[in-house]
Amino acid sequence: MYLYNIHTHKAGPEEIGGYKVQYILNTSPRDYKEEILASDNIRFSCGVHPWDADNAGDQLARLDEIVGQKQVFAIGETGLDKLKGPDMNVQEQVFRQQIELAISVNKPLIIHCVKAWDLLMALYKEYKSAIPWIIHGYRGNTEQTKQLVRFGFKFSVGEFFNGEAIRYIPLDSLFCETDMSEISICKVYEDISSILGLSFNQFVEIVADNFSIISK
Ligand SMILES: [Zn+2]
Hints:
The chain is 35% helix and 23% strand.
């Protein structure tokens, strides 16, 4: 059985506590090298971060070239950030191009969203796509969670989260990550399973099922 770390900036050990670990290692089109042949337990999310959305033409062109490769598991992280990065119009255009690209290759989106929830929901509604939109580093409150759940978003939760709110995330829409943290993915699974009143193993199986559905 595997533990899945759906968003990290650094791949760790192949095995933790008797479980194998599958990493989705985040990179940018600029840093992605064709020669990277991921081992079985490492695949990539590749995308233009909203902070880097200015003059992203070359990066988007590069992303277009590599997006079909098997080791590119998802497009991201991409999204919207009202507190940092270029003008929202610029961020939105770059995000839209990546949404359209993800839809065209039928791969998940890994989303970074800060204080731009209304626009994110509007875009979700507009594109009506079947691909998973996974909000990474999710720590929203209960009200926001209920709203996003109604739309059909998926959620990746890491070291910090709102323990009350995550109970409102359907179990089939939940993933785990470490992002920039030094914490072990095992600890994230432990924390979330205990909040949800599940055994560690039950939760491992749930996330494994969720992963297999989005990686078809
Ligand atoms: Zn990240």
